[in-house]
Records
---
Amino acid sequence: MKENMMENRLQNLLWTVSEDYNCDVKINPADLQKSPEIAFYNMVLQGAFQKYFDADFFETYIKKKIQYGAEPSVLTLISKLCIDSAVSLKICAERKGIENIRRKAFRETLKKDAFRFSHTDWDYLEYCYLEFQLYQKTINPKLHPLLLKIAALSHASSVKDVCKCIDEVYHTSYEKGFAEYFKGISRDTSGLKSAAEESDETEEQDNLISDEDTVNIFSGHVDAQDNGKQDKSNVRLLALDKQSSEHLEKYIELNYGKSILPPNEKSRLQKQMCTGIHEDCKLHITKGVLHNQAVSNAKTDYVKRIKEENLHVYKKNFLLTRQNILSLSNLLKRALLTRTERELCTSEYGTICPEKLWNLGRTDNSMLFKRELLQDNSDFAVEVLIDASGSQQRRQSLVALQGFIISRALSLAQIPHRVTGFCTFGSYTILNEYRDYLDNSDADENIFEFYGSANNRDGLAIRAVADSLDKQPQENKILIVLSDGNPNDIIAANSRQKTEKQPYYLDFAVKDTATEIRRLRNRKISVLGVFAGEEEDLQSEKKIFGKDFAYIHDISNFANIVGHYLKKQITD
């Protein structure tokens, strides 16, 4: 009911600002989840742009930019900044309350997307723009000319002025690059014409672009981690050259933590794991920025804040969480107990059986004794792998809670286990080890440092943690994967191959992940998928894990569902 009321308010706001009751724009649920102010102001932007500028011309411009090779995610963000500058002064002068909504939306964006702003050049540009608009602060003097160029659009009277500015900012901030760590990003843009000029060409050329190429620049930030469902023709790979890769490693260490592996071991692992479609990829195994970072920085402060938020959710749901932990641990203990029950068997030694003494001198039967056998209850090792990509940001506290329940229950049942989160940034798949096999139960709370960022190359992550699981001395091994069933990594590594690599997303990525799961099962490693995503991605989850996956509708039933599977693996 509340959602419908909010959507009606947003729709009415759009009509009021645009003064056009035929105006119909889809509402982005992500905006509402972030903040009502962000959703309100984005709707104001859409209505104001429809009112003051030729929206049809602009849509054609965006289509052509993408057709000629522009990166949709970068174009989306830069376009939104330019349109804000072009319409804000006009609409704020016309409707006095808009200025207050705009400032609140900018503050909320700075707060909610603090980590994203450190990811790429264009994210950083948005951060500088928001600071410049709110506080007239120039964070980076090198960007001051760009910010002034965008700000000058406040006096724009034609949509072509907006398009021209977007062209200039795009070529500067993306194709040339200005951030310290990403100066080496290269991209072939030969033949890329000015899309603003191309928009004046014939209608016949316009028809070459399908409706699927339409990009809604008001739909919120589109970073490298999207929903994996965009049209294949729109997916483009960023090629990182050698210089970029070297800088990228420094960036990874700064933002995710230093590697816990010595260089020779890291090199061996990469050579062994990064083969086939994962060739030219790299692995980075870390304990996180809070555990091996020499100095405190913005990222450590961010992770501390995220941990506090996750712990707040845990404390708010303490009784429910405790109930799940005790329920799951007791179930596991009972299952292990069945493996340690005394089993009596006849033997050539042990306790003599008087009723069998008649065999002496009469038969060759020497099995005159009984002996108790105890089955070993410590022959299990469990690996918990958690998808820590950007698609998990909206539910990261819930995912952290699920990981904690599993880990603490395994600790209480004294089952050796490791908990690892994974994401992919550039050519690196990062494995954040929250808890190792030999750690005590205090390490379980490290899982509350979990947060979502970047992309996810599930197949490579599963392959890498399985290597660690294989090395454990226990006979029986179980892998539990908490994911949204949506592997997606469209940023390519520096490739030695002449042919362009296929983007890692959609069916291609799902099939690769499913293949890795089958290989583990063929090696007698049991695998359970715990679905932590949107219902529309359930089919992908089924393709990956088959019948062995759990869909958690209600956190209160989490222990029963996961426990049922683990009990089956232990007792069989």
Note: Residues 341-373 form one domain.
---
Amino acid sequence: MQSMTRCLLVEDDAEIRSLVFDHLQRFGIEVDAVGSAAAMRAALAAGRYELMLLDLMLPDGAGLDICRELRQTDHPAAAMPIIMLTAQGDPMSRAVGLEMGADDYLAKPFEPRELIARIHAVLRRAAGLVAPGLALSRAPVVHFAGWTFDRLRRTLVSPRQVSVQLSGAEFRLLSVFVDHPQKALSRERLLELWRTPGEEVSDRSIDLAVSRLRSKLGDTPRGREGEPGLIRTLRGEGYLLDAKVSA
């Protein structure tokens, strides 16, 4: 990671904020640290960041709401990777955070080196260099079945030029599919490539995520006219993106 990486740390607990600030600087990350949603918005208006660490509970706003609202704006920060920091580390809370647009979810207390490792991972994925578990050689902007998927800007545009909002989980899942076009992927393999480090998810989580992604693509398992859809269900095998992908 280069020393020019800029991170916005949003944490209302002054002690935790100071500790995380020191750890990030020690690893060569430039940090601006604030303690409220209002201060966060002021910082985003004044500068650009490559990453945000966002506390789940702030005195003037909920981290989940802030994350969702930010993803829905046309501000440059809408594409910025976000790691949620929270005392609520149960699987359901983690799943909700990822659905709201977070790229990763880290429960307190955490080891500094684990935080740094997760920062490395989300920055690599955001740069289009690495999808979860897979080295990429393709351009970060890809096209399939008339759709345009930009992994740098985190945007998905339909064949009719309509922008479609993706949650963090949907973004990662679509990345996996476009990295493996026209190839059957078992639920086990999808889980391996899709989940974030340390996340515990079940096979049914994949089914739910696929269903939500199909909805965003206006897709069904058998398509609109009875033909196979973009994301096909292969009985006994898993799922397949039935489309050619080009850069």
Note: The chain has two domains: 6-127, 134-246.
---
Amino acid sequence: MCFYNKITFLCKHIEYRVAVHCHFARNDPGHQCFGAWNVKREWSEPQELCKDCTRGQIYLPVSCDARSAYGVDGRN
């Protein structure tokens, strides 16, 4: 049985990360586990977005107000 860490992010998405591989997964070249799995630890990241939301946020357009506040539009 493999053990996982369960992480809840600011965006309410949940990610499972392997904490400990079971005996079979350790010896398998692809670390595949066909048995049951269990959550070993659970915590939240209230200040962070998940990888997918962070990646999507990079491509969001910047609003006009934010551009003028930082002098990007050439008026300052």
Note: The two ends are 61 Å apart (CA to CA).
